[in-house]
Amino acid sequence: MRRTHRPRAGPELGAGMRAGAFGAALAALVLVGCSSGGPGKDVAAVVGGETITIAELDRELAISGVAKAADPAARKAALDEIVLRKLLAKAARAQGLDKSPDALQAKRIADESFNANLERIATIAKAPKPTPDEVKAFIASRPEQFARRTGYLIDQLQVPQAHTPDMVAAFLPTKTLEEAEAVLKARQMPYRRVVLPMDTLRTDPRLSAAVAKVPTGEPFVLPGADSFTINRIRGSQVQPLTGPQAEAVAREMIHAERINKALKDHIDALRREQVVYGPAFANETKATAPST
């Protein structure tokens, strides 16, 4: 019987497998070559393996109030600030500087301040804008700021200490600023003499109404928390604010008042609901409206 020799599949199959493996290795080499090049077009920089994308740079610029299409030099300067911040932050973490008790407290304070600001922004956004009728009523109710708006030029003696009843009594007989200044000198009280403008548009209407009643040239005292001033009107000029300009200013003022009230009411409510003071601070519970 003749012996039939079947072709062996081993060598041919092995060659095919070797060719496939070589192709896969070549493809992998090509991929590695691509990835080892420079950053892609959407990358602004790479800091220690951490990528800063163009989109992240634009968001940071927007948060900072810089337009996305800013001058290239300004964009590069902003990117350099981000890179420097990340370099220093990585160096601090590498040394464990962020693990100290002081650092942890500072980080907690920063996080809480950031979140608190987010809450303020959200509260401000809820403050309603005034209607046209509200704007007109506001203007009509404040003639000292609009219809009778007045600009003053005031000579002022600034005294850096709280006033007392006997001081007020000492200034009452004075009829000129020079006489009031002589009283300060006689008492050896430090003071500073300046000339300041005063616009009733941005002044408390009650103060504006009181100043309007003071005869020109006669001194008057304005007390403060830990200081007081002695003032004399040098001159004044009525500068009415009317029309669209008055309406724009009134809208701004009404909205600012509503924002302050919204913030104060919100914070007061949170205090009442959640804050309990210790014995040393039990009487220090008066809420203060934040400045906007």
Would you write up a description of this structure?
- The strands form two sheets. A four-stranded antiparallel β-sheet has the order 4-3-6-5, with helices on one face. It has a two-stranded antiparallel sheet with strand order 1-2.
- The termini are far apart.
- The protein is built from nine helices and six strands.
- The chain has 292 residues and is α+β, with helices and mostly antiparallel strands.
- The protein has three domains: 57 residues, Orthogonal Bundle (Helicase, Ruva Protein, domain 3), CATH 1.10.8; 70 residues, no CATH class; 90 residues, Chitinase A, domain 3 (Roll), CATH 3.10.50.
- Strand 5 and strand 6 form a beta hairpin.
Please outline the helices and strands.
Layout: H1 10-35, E1 43-47, E2 50-53, H2 54-63, H3 72-94, H4 101-125, H5 132-141, E3 150-159, H6 165-171, H7 177-186, E4 192-199, H8 205-212, E5 220-223, E6 228-238, H9 243-274
Antiparallel strand pairs: 1-2, 3-4, 3-6, 5-6
